[in-house]
Amino acid sequence: MTTEKVDVLVIGAGPSGTVAASIINKAGYSVKIVEKLKFPRFVIGESLLPRCMDALTEAGFIDAISEKGFQQKSGAKFVKQGKICDFTFAEQYTPGWQWTWQVTRADFDHTLAQTVEKMGVPVEYETTVTGIVFNGSDSVTTVEDIHGNKKQIEARFIVDGSGYGRVIPKLFNLEKESVLQPRKALFAHTNDVRRSMADEPNRITAVVHDKGVWIWIIPFSTGITSVGFVGDHTFHDKFSGTQEEMFRAMLASEPYTAERFKDVELIFEPRKLEAWSATTDKFYGEGFVLTGNVTEFLDPIFSSGVTLATVSAQTAAKLVIRKLQGENIDWEKEYMEPTMQGVNVFRSYVMAWYEGTLDTIFFSKNPDPVVKAQICSVLAGYVWDQSNPYVELHATELKRLARKIELTEKLGSLS
Ligand code: FAD
């Protein structure tokens, strides 16, 4: 078996792997990415958040992405039985990016991988990590290509950005169950011929359907729109037939999607994903760090996935560089805590969404503009700004606000 040597081995060429690889490579270390699939490859996660633009900028990816002409996104809209709550990122509380993109991930991820290759990081496609042996922080990783050829890669450090592959947690039994209830999604890309300017292609729309069920509508610049139904099994079990039959029946089951997507052409057979929430006890160990989805993936509702993936990769990459320079890193304090801060804030919002707390807030009769701007910052991904009470007190403040709104509206209806 042949053996190669690099400073840093990155597993996975998704957003987290490529961001980490680019930043470490820029610091002068040799980096290699191994990627199980051939790119472009399909992956879901098409609506980005403004906060990820900071990480994409530091990785040097913004120009290459801009050239692709993806749909710009400047807000997020929530719709429930004719009521609308519209967030515009330009009106957010935390200073920062006020827009981002809605992307077809096959093209987006391919662009990141090609850009990092141009920067000098080799990406070895159709190459799967099958085993890792650590010797202190040094490691020997066994990889196998699609022809069954095996080789070893010696590295001083590993960044695991393998997403749903969860390579290191699976190899070393670090898997832990998420506290979130398992949910399913059925989704497709549609030829959105009835899209009008009123449907605002520059934002994601989340339509509240049944209790605990919602629909994402993510328009792309090509006229294609991604549509997905998310709910627990009781909703999905109501539909039968092929995936296409179920998807069309779901579209017909909600008045807005029934009209806009009636008989719409589907670009691919609808796909199903389920039970995606997962986590691990620790996001680091001697000789490795986990980034992106491998750390914790929550739920699609607030489009947090790519932002947490790129921001965790950005943080991890800088720590890896300092570690390679000989510094002693306090991974718990400098990596685990800030990463969990982002995850915990989004988890509170995901729970508040499914419990109905955010329904009360989003569709209240007289929203307070200051509070709306603060919540808007969370929806833009600025979940590390402790000066924002809806970040700092995320676990309690949403419930308190919802109770206040309920009381005010009740008193208003009595007077
Ligand atoms: P990935 O993008 O999954 O990349 C990991 C790469 O690692 C893959 O290319 C994979 O092939 C490779 N790999 C895996 N195993 C191995 C191995 N053994 N060896 C080598 N390579 C390997 N996020 C958003 O930001 N916005 C959204 O609108 C959104 N919608 C979503 C909807 C649903 C239904 C779900 C389930 C998720 C959604 N997400 C969304 C989350 C998003 O998909 C992920 O958070 C994001 O892709 C994570 O990026 P990553 O780089 O960590 O992993």
TrEMBL record:
Enzyme Commission (EC) number: 1.-.-.-
Any GO molecular function: oxidoreductase activity
InterPro entries: FAD/NAD-bd_sf, Flavin-dep_Halogenase_NPB, Flavin_halogenase
Gene3D superfamilies the record matches: FAD/NAD(P)-binding domain
Keywords of this entry: Oxidoreductase
SUPFAM superfamilies per record: FAD/NAD(P)-binding domain
Organism for this UniProt entry: Chitinophaga caseinilytica
Name of the molecule in the record: NAD(P)/FAD-dependent oxidoreductase
PANTHER family per the UniProt record, alphabetical: FAD-BINDING PROTEIN, SLR1998 PROTEIN
